[in-house]
Amino acid sequence: MALSNAQYDQIMMEYARVRRTHRMETEAREVEIAARIPAYASLEQQIPELAGEMSRSYLNGDKSAKERLDRRILEIRSKQKQLLEDQGYPADYLQPQFTCPLCGDTGFANGERCTCLREKIRDLLYEQSHLRALSQENNFSLMREDFYKGEDLRRFHGALARCQELLDAFRADHPAGSLLFFGPVGSGKSFLSVATATEVLNAGHSVLYFSSVTLFSQLSDVTFGQGAQELRRDFEKDLAACDLLVIDDLGTELPNAFVSTQLFHIINERHLARKSTIISTNLDFDEMRARYSDRIFSRLMHDFTLCELTGRDIRLAKATA
To answer: What span, in angstroms and rounded, lies between the C-alpha atoms of 210 and 199?
Structure first.
């Protein structure tokens, strides 16, 4: 689900609200200081008077006028800081306040998105992606290879290499292709799917994650629900537009013509749009062909990089360790 214009505008409105709040806080402090330290306000009033005087001098040919003005302003600021400190205030009490000093609460620093804006976008994408909870236990920092041996380990390394290639392509903003993880229960398919999707999202790309059951259930709801035409259109747009779509545990949903039609539509639309998809399944090739038809099977074999994982059930091995 890509970040919509409305969502981006909402973030920018929040920045404007923060700036307005800090500006009101600063104005309230100025009123406070004017009442408690009249000499501070008197010094402040001297600055525009000096600026006018120096401007006239400069226009009359006095090239050193600006330098004298800068020096006098520094002297005034120094006296003001001293007045604040003498009354128990911090020297910067009347300086503009910012939640993010890097960008001044604008969201941009040096013509680029500030780290605070990137974090806001990433947090919003996390909420949309359904990945936040899953990524806590399925990320590359927790990866273990000791559950694999021999040929199983070789296949795991091969799948891991394909994940890295996909991540490198995303980081370089190149077309990244699609991955199909297949193999027995507990062999690491979901772990690699979620961990890879998390890295893609952290790089600032939009990601949607669904278990197969949840995806087709939601598609059914928006397709056949009362007055759901607009919801269906938006949902299908999100499925087609997100940078990476993850469909986990394909084959666990109830098989029917609706599922097959929707699956082909999703795979086809994303392939035409050159969008990346990760699918994991416990089904073997014969089961996939029988369950989803030859045309879907052909798409999976042709459009996806196949990554077979084998070995014992890692979840069960962890539980009994």
So the answer is: 17
- Cα–Cα distance measured from residue 120 to residue 145, given in angstroms and rounded to the nearest whole number: 34
Contact (Cβ atoms closer than 8 angstroms) between residue 202 and residue 125? no
Question: 180 has which bridge partners?
Answer: 279, 306
Tell whether the model's pLDDT for residue 129 goes beyond 80. no
As beta bridge partners, residue 305 has 179
The residue with tokens 């009490």 is 93
CA distances from 254 to 52, 261, 314 (A): 80, 13, 26
Please state, in angstroms and rounded to a whole number, the distance separating the CA atoms of residues 84 and 39: 10
Residue 5: pLDDT over 80:
no
Give CA–CA dist 229/222, Å, rounded. 7
The SS3 of residue 187 is coil
* Mean pLDDT, rounded, for 52-78: 83
Q: How many CB atoms lie within 10 A of CB 163?
A: 23
Amino acid at 202: N
**pLDDT cut 90: percent of the chain above it:** 54
Helix (H) or strand (E) holding 291: helix 285-292
Whole-angstrom Cα distance, residue 163 to residue 17?
41
H/E segment holding residue 170: helix 150-171
Q: Supply the pTM of this predicted model.
A: 0.65
Residue type at 88 in one-letter notation? G
Secondary structure element (H or E) that encloses residue 127, with its range: helix 115-129
How far apart are alpha carbons 303 and 274 in whole angstroms?
Answer: 10
Any idea of the CA torsion for 37, 38, 39, 41, to the nearest 10 degrees?
A: 100
Q: Does residue 142 have a pLDDT over 50?
A: yes
Mean pLDDT to the nearest integer, 234-250: 88
Matching residue, tokens 């290499």: 161
* DSSP helix/strand/coil, 149: coil
